[in-house]
């Protein structure tokens, strides 16, 4: 099983290149105004140009209107969209008509969302903590029986615990933010490399 690696909260070209050189498969750029890791579409677009087409660029949104999501995604030249927050199935499908969607859910909503999106083209589930970006890991053992095949995993992952998370849930991809930072919005190159190495070693 090859597990893909996504590093989220990328705020600069420097961090994008650093992560790409470490071997990540995807970068996340947060466009939710409430985030400490907010980035402009222009910076995200420049970062994408500097890492090349092999690394996926994922725009992260929280409860923003459809027009804003599509306009921002186009300006940033992202390759997929990650959607957080309480959203209607119609809204998710509307976004998925334009971009592959990572639909982020909390543990309490996982079973219902998995049933809803199991056979939906263009929509992949990502399980995250109730407070995304907070650095608090989930209870992976409690989720073993409900974690959907092909889903992505986030929530408090870092170099020291990602192997255990993968062994517990067998996600298709893992996503990390806060445990890879020197400070909010600034990546630590060694931690990013260690994270990728921990995933690839399995």
From TrEMBL:
Protein name (database record): N-(5'-phosphoribosyl)anthranilate isomerase
Entry's family note: Belongs to the TrpF family.
One GO MF term attached to the UniProt entry: isomerase activity
SUPFAM superfamilies listed in its UniProt record: Ribulose-phoshate binding barrel
Catalysed reaction equations from the record: N-(5-phospho-beta-D-ribosyl)anthranilate = 1-(2-carboxyphenylamino)-1-deoxy-D-ribulose 5-phosphate
Enzyme Commission (EC) number: 5.3.1.24
Gene3D superfamilies: Aldolase class I
Record organism: Deinococcus depolymerans
Protein's pathway: Amino-acid biosynthesis; L-tryptophan biosynthesis; L-tryptophan from chorismate: step 3/5
HAMAP family assigned: PRAI
InterPro entries hit by this protein: Aldolase_TIM, PRAI_dom, RibuloseP-bd_barrel, TrpF_fam
Keywords attached to this entry: Amino-acid biosynthesis, Aromatic amino acid biosynthesis, Isomerase, Tryptophan biosynthesis
């Amino acid at each position: 099983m090859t597990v893909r690696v996504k590093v989220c909260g990328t705020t600069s070209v420097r961090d994008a290149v650093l992560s790409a050189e470490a071997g990540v498969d995807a970068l996340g750029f947060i466009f939710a105004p409430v985030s400490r890791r907010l980035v402009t579409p222009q910076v995200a677009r420049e970062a994408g140009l500097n890492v090349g087409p092999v690394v996926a660029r994922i725009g992260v949104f929280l409860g923003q209107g459809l027009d804003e999501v599509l306009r921002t995604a186009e300006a940033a030249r992202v390759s997929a969209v990650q959607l957080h927050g309480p959203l209607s199935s119609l809204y998710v499908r509307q976004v998925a008509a334009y971009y592959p969607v990572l639909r982020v859910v909390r543990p309490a909503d996982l079973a219902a969302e998995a049933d809803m999106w199991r056979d939906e083209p263009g929509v992949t589930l990502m399980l995250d903590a109730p407070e995304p970006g907070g650095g608090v890991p989930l209870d992976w053992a409690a989720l073993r029986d409900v974690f959907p095949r092909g889903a992505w995993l986030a929530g408090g992952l870092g170099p020291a615990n990602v192997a255990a998370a993968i062994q517990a849930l067998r996600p298709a991809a893992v996503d990390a933010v806060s445990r890879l930072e020197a400070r909010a919005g600034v990546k630590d190159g060694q931690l990013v490399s260690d994270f990728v190495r921990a995933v690839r070693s399995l």
